[in-house]
Write a structure and sequence with these properties.
CATH architecture: Orthogonal Bundle
Structural class: mainly alpha
Radius of gyration: 22 Å
CATH topology: Helix Hairpins
Number of helices: 7
Helix content: 55-70%
Order of helices and strands: HEHHHHHEH
């Protein structure tokens, strides 16, 4: 619900900025999709890498404290390894290796899962770069405060618009 409210507030603030801009489109009865007439501005907001690493660590610790290893043990390593998707989900193969003695310590298990999760996160960054090559990329500040993040996003959009950055 917090995320939904955050996005609604952000949308309202961006609409206010948009209303301050002047837009003129030719009068036509059929929809116009020519980018020169109706430009599209793609913006990719990336999480701050340092903050993302911290979140990965915290989330992993919460999951382990909540009994993730015990859950895998109860499900049975053999059953998970045979499951086409479940046994391949982030962290599960490493926990299976840990339970089978292939990863010797809990600390090494944590390090291994954090590394695999970070590699997955980096692939998502790469995906956005390749799938949206013309997008303006902005990295969010190091903050979990939704109000501060919203203020920052609005200021960032204003800065970009004021600089007439091509979009």
């Amino acid at each position: 619900e917090k995320s939904y409210l955050f996005l609604r507030r952000l949308e309202n603030r961006l609409q206010m900025i948009d209303e301050q801009q002047t837009h003129t489109l030719p009068e036509k009865k059929e929809p116009v999709y020519d980018e020169k007439l109706l430009p599209v501005w793609e913006v990719v907001i990336l999480p701050n890498r340092s903050l993302l690493r911290q979140k990965i660590s915290r989330r992993l610790q919460v999951m382990l404290d909540a009994g993730w290893i015990e859950e895998v043990e109860q499900l049975g390593c053999d059953r998970l390894q045979q499951a086409p998707q479940a046994g391949k989900a982030l962290g599960y193969p490493q926990i299976i290796e840990y339970l089978n003695g292939l990863i010797p310590s809990r600390e090494e298990l944590i390090s291994c899962i954090e590394k695999k999760t970070w590699q997955y996160a980096k692939r998502q960054y790469t995906w956005f770069r390749h799938q949206h090559p013309r997008a303006t990329r902005i990295e969010s500040p190091q903050s979990d405060d939704m109000e501060a993040l919203q203020d920052w996003l609005v200021a960032e959009f204003r800065r970009i618009l004021a600089g007439n950055e091509s979009h």
